[in-house]
Write a structure and sequence with these properties.
The chain has 393 residues and is of the alpha/beta class. The longest helix is centred in the middle third of the chain and has 19 residues. The strands form four sheets. It has a six-stranded mixed β-sheet with strand order 5-6-7-3-8-9, with helices on both faces. The protein has two domains: 239 residues, Rossmann fold; 137 residues, Coagulation Factor XIII, Chain A, domain 1, CATH 2.70.50.60.
Length: 393
C-alpha cells in the first residue's frame, strides 16, 4: 500500500480505435474478419506505450511533449477518467484534477452548486465545503456570477472555478493540464502561487504544460512523452534540456520544406550580432512561391513548443520566385535564454500555404537572472512594435 499522496504507474499501455467515426457495416465486418484471422490489433493506435511513473508524497512532476504525444491521456488515466489497456496503477489519497475546461462542472447547475457537487465527489461533508465556500468564490473572482448557471460562463470563468475548487478542497494529489493557459496573466500567477503553497504543504503535483518556463519553475522532476513513449525522465532541468534539443532539430529539419510555399533562408540577429533584451531584433526570411499570391504572414516567438510569447502578422503579396520579408522588432521583450522563431503563411480563407512551425532558434543576452523563483510565471503574451519591409529577389 502506497503512502497517502503517492502515485505508482507501471508499464501503462493505452490504445484507441484509429477511426472511431467509421461504423458502417463494411467496417464492422472488416473488424470481425481481422479478429477471426488473428489481426485484431489492426485499426487501433497506441496513445501510450509502456509508460511508468513514480511520485512520492509532496513531489512535483512536469510532463512535456508535443500535441498528440499522450500527455493528457496519461493524466486522465492517473485521474481514473480512463483506464489503461495494460499495466498497473496505484494512486493513494484524495485526487483533485483540472484536466479540461468545464470538466466535472454541470452546465445546468450554478457555480455555487457545482462547488458543493465537486466537494461531495471528493468525499467532503457539506459543513467542510461550506467552511471553504467563500474562500473558493473569492479566489475564483466569481462573486457576481456564482449564482449563475455554469453554461453561461466563459471559458476563463470555468477555468477559474475549476482550479479554485480543485486547489481549495485539501487534495492529496493535484493534477493540472494546459487549461491554465486560458486564464489571464494575473490569474495564472495567482494559480502558480497557490500551487507553490500546496507543494509546501506536502500536496503532490503532476503538471502538464507546453510552457517550459512554468514547468521548470514549478516542478523538480520531469517526463518527456513522444508518440506515447517516455523519451526522457529525471531531473526537470535535464528533461527540458533534452526536449529543447529535439525542438532545435525539428526547427532545422523544417528549413527548406513547406507546403505550397518554401522557406529558403532564415536569419535572426541585431546590429551587434547577438540578440539582447530591450534592444532591436532583426528577422529576415526568404520565401519561395511557385506563383504570385496574396497571403497573411505570421511570425512568432516561443520558449518551446508552447503558446507563443508574441505573434506578429501582416498581409503579404508574394511574387513568383523568391520574396524576402524583413521584420524589425524595436524593443525585444525577452529575458536572457534560448527562444524559437515560428513562421506560418495562410491564404485569406485561413488555409495553410506554409504550416505554422518552428524554423530556427536564437539566444538572448539579458539580465543575470536566468531562472525565476519557483512558482513564478516568467512569460506572458505581450504587445510588440515592429516595422516590416518586403522585397522580391
Amino acid at each position: 500500500m502506497l503512502p497517502r499522496g503517492s502515485i505508482g504507474a507501471a508499464h501503462i499501455w493505452k490504445r484507441f480505435r484509429a477511426d472511431p467515426t467509421r461504423n458502417y457495416l463494411r467496417d464492422q465486418l472488416a473488424r470481425w474478419r481481422d479478429l477471426v484471422r488473428g489481426n485484431g490489433h489492426r485499426g487501433w493506435r497506441w496513445a501510450l506505450r509502456d509508460v511508468s511513473l513514480t511520485v512520492e508524497p509532496g513531489g512535483a512532476v512536469g510532463i512535456v511533449g508535443t500535441n498528440g504525444s499522450g500527455k493528457s491521456t496519461f493524466l486522465k488515466i492517473l485521474n481514473r477518467v480512463m483506464y489503461p489497456y495494460a499495466g498497473r496503477l496505484e494512486v493513494s489519497g484524495r485526487v483533485a484534477a483540472l484536466i479540461e475546461i468545464g470538466a466535472g462542472l454541470h452546465p445546468e447547475l450554478t457555480g455555487g452548486e457545482n462547488i458543493y457537487l465537486t466537494g461531495s465527489l471528493l468525499g467532503l461533508r457539506r459543513q467542510e465545503i461550506a467552511a471553504r465556500f467563500d474562500e473558493i468564490v473569492a479566489f475564483a473572482e466569481l462573486d457576481p456570477a456564482i449564482e449563475r448557471q455554469v453554461k453561461f460562463y466563459s471559458s476563463g470563468m470555468k477555468m477559474r472555478l475549476g482550479f479554485a475548487v480543485a486547489a481549495s478542497l485539501q487534495p492529496d494529489i493535484l493534477l493540472v493540464d494546459e487549461v491554465l493557459a486560458v486564464g489571464d496573466a494575473a490569474f495564472q500567477q495567482k494559480s502558480f502561487n497557490r500551487m507553490r503553497a500546496m507543494l509546501s504543504e506536502g500536496v503532490t503535483l503532476v503538471f502538464v504544460s507546453h510552457d517550459l518556463a512554468s514547468v521548470e519553475a514549478t516542478c523538480t522532476h520531469g517526463i518527456w512523452l513522444e508518440n506515447g513513449v517516455v523519451a526522457a525522465g529525471g531531473a526537470v532541468d535535464e528533461v527540458l534540456a533534452a526536449y529543447r534539443r529535439s525542438i532545435e532539430e525539428t526547427a532545422h529539419a523544417y528549413v527548406g520544406t513547406g507546403g505550397v510555399l518554401r522557406v529558403a533562408r532564415v536569419a535572426v540577429g541585431s546590429d551587434h550580432g547577438t540578440a539582447a533584451s530591450h534592444e532591436e531584433l532583426r528577422v529576415a526570411t526568404v520565401i519561395e512561391s511557385p506563383h504570385a499570391l496574396t497571403s497573411v504572414f505570421y511570425l512568432g516567438v516561443s520558449e518551446g513548443p508552447a503558446t507563443p510569447i508574441f505573434v506578429l502578422q501582416r498581409d503579404l503579396h508574394l511574387t513568383a520566385g523568391a520574396t524576402e520579408v524583413r521584420c524589425l522588432i524595436r524593443r525585444l521583450p525577452l529575458p536572457r535564454g534560448r527562444f524559437y522563431l515560428w513562421l506560418g503563411i495562410f491564404d485569406k480563407a485561413g488555409h495553410d500555404l506554409l504550416p505554422w512551425h518552428p524554423v530556427t532558434h536564437f539566444d538572448v543576452a539579458g539580465p543575470d537572472l536566468d531562472r525565476p523563483p519557483r512558482g513564478v510565471v516568467r512569460l506572458a503574451p505581450v504587445h510588440v512594435e515592429a516595422a516590416w519591409e518586403v522585397d522580391a529577389e
